[in-house]
Write a structure and sequence with these properties.
482 residues, alpha/beta, Udp-n-acetylmuramoylalanyl-d-glutamate--2,6- Diaminopimelate Ligase, Chain: A, domain 1, UDP-N-acetylmuramoyl-L-alanine:D-glutamate ligase, Protein-Tyrosine Phosphatase, Chain A, 3 domains, 11-stranded mixed sheet, 6-stranded mixed sheet, 15 helices, 23 strands, 32% helix, binds ligand UAG, binds adenosine-5'-triphosphate, ATP-binding, ATP binding
Length: 482
């Protein structure tokens, strides 16, 4: 796209005499600049992108966009002043990729827990309904062929240029719909600003990421943007925050509350899955979902309501639910010939841990054992003690261990978790995660359940300054063979 066409598309005026080269792409990271690209200078929490202008010019950028040059800094390239740099990054990326979301049906999923599971279920139901569909989620992205691919870093929602590039790639690969997990960071940092949503799904909200958002209200307000921006919302009737969302526009409600249009009744938790009576605007039927975890009933209702909004019928929804293969690392069962049940799950907030342990208790005839840690670095230290409290209250024995401790001394994290356990003595701290998993599996007898919580499908474990390759399911298999 020519620079002048790009400026016109964004309603920006260029100084007279500005050259008109082709703009081949856009980035906010100086190290990613390639010849012909535009660079957006963002003032972040740690750096000001304007300090890298010389580097950016040397790498062959043709344009800089920013909120204003700092005093005394001269631009070595044409400089476009914009009101909001992150917004400009998203708008430029969308313009360069031909605004792909406008040619797709886009379902956005937000909430504290349940985003990934709901997204995976929704894309599965859309495909069952014959709509070639793609997915962007924490557990990787999928083109309509269904193969799981990964972005290079641990991202739920990548930066806007990658989001737009991915959406354009989805279109090229034949997608007609895309399901996109929208994290609160993504909404706050404008990573999904230039996405034309069709349906927004709200899972639920509990306190998380307060290190970044400051207050729960601030966290809620970022997530609310998704509901504001979509023409139709699928809202959780059982989540107290929904009361603040219903006035924002057309919506449907799901859950177990009587006012839910998509309602589950008579929920039965079985060893291999969940059965419930579905009442919905398309009719009434018996539903089967081969997944454990009672909260997955909510995820299923949300996914069905979203897929129905894009045209899926009741038979397709029920068949699709019954054939859903689950999500890697979410309530994933690791087979054991010896009758112990080991479950790998991503629960890493006190409420999601509470739900995971609560639901596993229902189908555990023996003891419930849990292995868990709490992340270090900047990640919400206020979670540590509550995680220790929940684990020791709801499990028969808890092993406290590392979970991406980063530069925080593991002892400090474990002490906080132990403090949360209060006077209870049903816990052991084992700093090395592999050792902790082995100790838990050794303790288990047939009929017992061991929940390995917190890492789920993640492929690395961050310890001090090391990033170690990690596969929790494989760790569980090895421990079972020990
Ligand atoms: C807390 C957070 O989200 N921070 C984001 C924020 O960082 P920041 O404000 O500190 O940026 P900065 O480091 O000061 O840099 C400012 C600018 O200078 C540029 N820069 C900086 C240094 C340099 O050498 N060269 C250079 O060009 C940067 O690319 C950036 O454009 O802006 C950066 C650029 O947009 C993001 O990369 C960064 O995400 C970091 C990597 C991150 O870890 N984010 C996580 C927490 C996140 O977003 N997680 C959510 C999921 C959360 C969940 O639900 O669990 C996600 O969607 O993945
Ligand atoms: N609807 C729900 N309500 C509460 N807890 C849930 C719900 N769905 C899943 N969980 C729990 O939260 C964990 C994370 O689920 P999932 O990955 O689907 O959520 P997420 O919102 O994508 O989380 P993240 O953004 O951290 O990846 C699950 O492993 C499960 O323990």
């Amino acid at each position: 796209m020519k620079l002048h066409d790009l400026a016109r598309a964004l309603n920006l005026s260029l100084p007279d005499g500005t050259p008109d080269p082709d703009v081949s792409g856009v980035t906010h990271n100086a190290a990613w600049v390639q010849p012909g690209m535009a660079f957006v200078a963002i003032r972040g929490a740690r750096f000001d992108g304007h300090s890298f202008l010389a580097d950016v010019a040397a790498r062959g950028a043709v344009l800089v966009l920013g909120e204003g040059l700092p005093d005394g800094v001269a631009a070595p390239l044409p400089y476009l002043r914009v009101p909001e740099a992150r917004a400009a990054l998203a708008d430029v990326a969308a313009a360069l990729h031909g605004d792909p979301s406008r040619a797709l049906k886009v379902v956005g999923v937000t909430g504290t827990d349940g985003k990934t599971t709901t997204s995976w279920m929704t894309v599965h139901l859309l495909r069952a309904a014959g709509l070639p569909s793609g997915l962007l989620s924490t557990a990787g992205y999928q083109l309509p062929d269904g193969a799981v691919r990964h972005f290079p870093a641990h991202f739920t929602t990548p930066e806007a240029p990658q989001v737009q590039e991915n959406l354009a790639g989805q279109l090229q690969a034949g997608a007609r719909a895309v399901v996109l997990e929208a994290s609160s960071h993504a909404l706050a940092l404008e990573r999904v600003r230039a996405v034309a949503w069709d349906v927004a799904v709200w899972t639920q909200l509990t306190s998380e990421h307060l290190d970044f958002h400051g207050t729960v209200q601030g966290y809620f307000e970022e997530k609310r943007k998704l509901i504001e921006r979509a023409p139709f919302a699928v809202l959780n009737a059982d989540d107290p925050w929904t009361a603040h969302l219903t006035a924002l526009g057309p919506h449907t409600l799901y859950g177990e509350a009587p006012e839910a249009a998509w309602r589950a009744a008579d929920v039965r938790e079985e060893v291999g899955g969940l059965r419930f009576r579905l009442h919905c605007p398309l009719g009434e039927a018996e539903a089967w979902l081969p997944m454990i975890g009672r909260f997955n009933v909510h995820n299923a209702l949300a996914a069905m309501a979203a897929a129905a909004q894009l045209g899926a019928d009741l038979g397709t929804l029920l068949d699709g639910l019954a054939s859903f293969a689950g999500v890697p690392g979410r309530m994933e069962l690791v087979p054991d010939a010896g009758g112990r049940r080991v479950v790998v799950d991503f629960a890493h907030t006190p409420p999601s841990l509470e739900k995971a342990l609560g639901t596993l208790r229902v189908t555990t005839p023996g003891r419930l054992i849990v292995v868990l840690g709490s992340a270090g670095g900047l990640r919400d230290p206020s979670k540590r003690a509550p995680l220790g409290e929940v684990a020791t209250r709801l499990a028969d024995h808890a092993f406290f261990t590392e979970e991406d401790s980063r530069d925080t001394p593991i002892r400090d994290i474990l002490q906080e978790m132990e403090r949360g356990a209060g006077g209870r003595s049903n816990h052991t701290s084992v700093p090395d995660r592999r050792e902790a998993i082995r100790a838990a599996v050794r303790l288990a007898r047939p009929g017992d359940t061991v929940l390995l919580a917190g890492k789920g499908p993640e492929e690395t474990l961050e310890r001090l300054h090391e990033t170690i390759p990690w596969n929790e399911v494989q760790e569980a298999r090895d421990a079972l063979l020990d």
